Sequence to fold (153 residues):
Amino acid sequence: MAEKKHTPPGDLAVNRKAWHDYTVLDRIECGIQLTGTEVKVVRHGEASLAGAYGAVLGGELFVCGMNIPVYEFGNRFNHDPRRNRKLLVHAKEVEELRMKTEAKGLTLIPLKLYIKRGHIKLELGVCRGKALHDKRDSLKQKAQRRDMERGDW
Fold:
């Protein structure tokens, strides 16, 4: 069996690539509407946030492109792995996020999926895409910080 990548304790899925490709300007915690088989798969740690994004559709907030594989012990009530899932936030927050994404050219990117007091939550980031030179600067700063901590300077 393939070994799973380690995620921080308490986190079910983390979008590590989001921090490399985007500058996170703001974060918001959302509830997520899941079916029974989806909850079982997510709690087992098999969900993937790679390539997922948030969108305001018809006045409601959804996460699109998030992959939750089919539950292997499920029957005819199994779910579609790539369906759009509704995020549970207040109407004011939905309107605020819609205005930010339309006016300023920002994107909604899922950062992590975790459990809080028995409920599955999704941390959604309001992000701006990085240019190639910004990514190089970020990597350079990260390497310098690592060297300073190690004492290699």
